[in-house]
DNA sequence: AGCAAGCTATCACAGGCGTGATAGAAAGGG
DNA sequence: CCCTTTCTATCACGCCTGTGATAGCTTGCT
């Protein structure tokens, strides 16, 4: 009966425009008017799909989380059951999974940039806090499981506390993201990956 | 001839108010009117000491940098020449210096919070970029020197690349700051310090 | 054809922002 | 005392923001 537009697709183009604006000019510049312009839409049209600014932001950030976590789960699934794999293969797979969290190409760079801005905003914006908290615990769980899988294979150096190492690795990854996004000329993707590799190598080194 | 107010002191009270606002409500909420209210000043009065918003921000961020770097230099000076000190003493001093960069008490927590917001803004605000870059290279230099001092004492594990370890330690510190500020309930000051201690211990461990 | 629902486009309003301009108060030096 | 400089306090302007309201267009079903 109505028009022929797919609302799902429309919302996707809008939040893609939002992400472009956030990456280019920051979250605080992502007003309804600016995003609408970026999407080539009229603001009234945009508001037909997102009743309010809060709704837009909420939808966008959930979409971002879904996109990333889908990629991570795909990667985990592709790795399959690690049981029976040789030690080096496990280390390689786990490292690849952790690399997925770093801004090593343009796509991941954009995602990480948005996440950083969003997390920063979540500190003072109560509306963002639940999702930010969820993402934080989600990555912790992922990293913890990654370390646990190494431990199961006996690939982890003995005497390491899994909890403490999780915290260390999570903070290292976040710090790498931060520096790679804010100072890309000093922390290039190559150096970024190299630091992660060195860290994992140290965790899995046998004495 | 004029009034009796010390402009230096006035500016300090203003930027202290600014810092309080940034910590409590974020950098983007730190408008001239809000900061003036927080300082108990009229906006016109505030503008007598800071001609524009840019000037206020610039002054505030430089003041923050000066405050932190002064504390760091004091600490370095207090440590004095490390030559001749026993290995464990060196490690202890270096660890203490690095702890100065973490939000382990309210003062450092406020500083780190402001710095994170400021750095985030610097990504898209050209006016902030020079100072943000300077701070970033400054911490790198500090961390690099700290590691070098350990190396001089033979306290560093052999086979470590100083440059790579600097990058790793800087990112770890930044990540710890980020998580401690954004998720204080999961990364408490104690855990934060513990992670740093574990890292330094690992760097200085002999096999 | 015509109705209804989905969609696009605009207008208006209130509120916050930085800033230029300006007027008045305060206070020490002549 | 008064004059000059510093300081405080307000007003107004233009811009941008989110949002409520509304009118008009498009499209497909009956």
From TrEMBL, chains A, B:
One protein family per Pfam: TetR_N
Q: Which residues bind DNA?
A: 31-50
HTH tetR-type domain sequence ranges = 8-68
Matching entries from InterPro entries are given as:
BetI_C, DNA-bd_HTH_TetR-type_CS, Homeodomain-like_sf, HTH-type_TetR-like_transc_reg, HTH_TetR, Tet_transcr_reg_TetR-rel_C_sf
Which keywords describe this protein according to UniProt? DNA-binding, Repressor, Transcription, Transcription regulation
PANTHER family found in the cross-reference section: HTH-TYPE TRANSCRIPTIONAL REGULATOR PKSA (PTHR30055:SF226), HTH-TYPE TRANSCRIPTIONAL REGULATOR RUTR (PTHR30055)
Instruction: Please identify the protein, giving its name as recorded.
Output: TetR/AcrR family transcriptional regulator
| Biological source species | Streptomyces albiaxialis
């Amino acid at each position: 009966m109505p028009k022929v537009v797919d609302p799902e697709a429309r919302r996707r183009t809008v939040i893609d425009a939002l992400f472009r604006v956030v990456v280019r000019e920051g979250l605080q510049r992502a007003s309804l008017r600016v995003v609408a312009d970026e999407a080539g839409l009229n603001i009234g049209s945009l508001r037909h799909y997102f009743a309010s600014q809060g709704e837009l932001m909420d939808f966008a950030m959930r979409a971002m989380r879904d996109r990333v976590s889908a990629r991570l789960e795909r990667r985990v699934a592709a790795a399959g059951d690690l049981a029976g794999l040789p030690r080096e293969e496990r280390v390689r797979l786990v490292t690849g999974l952790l690399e997925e969290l770093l801004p090593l190409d343009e796509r991941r760079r954009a995602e990480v940039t948005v996440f950083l801005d969003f997390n920063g905003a979540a500190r003072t914006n109560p509306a963002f806090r639940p999702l930010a908290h969820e993402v934080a615990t989600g990555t912790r769980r992922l990293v913890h499981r990654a370390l646990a899988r190494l431990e199961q294979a006996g690939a982890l150096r003995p005497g390491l506390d899994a909890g403490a190492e999780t915290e260390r690795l999570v903070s290292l990854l976040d710090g790498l993201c931060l520096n790679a996004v804010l100072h890309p000329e000093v922390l290039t993707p190559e150096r970024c990956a190299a630091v992660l590799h060195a860290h994992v190598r140290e965790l899995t080194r046998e004495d």
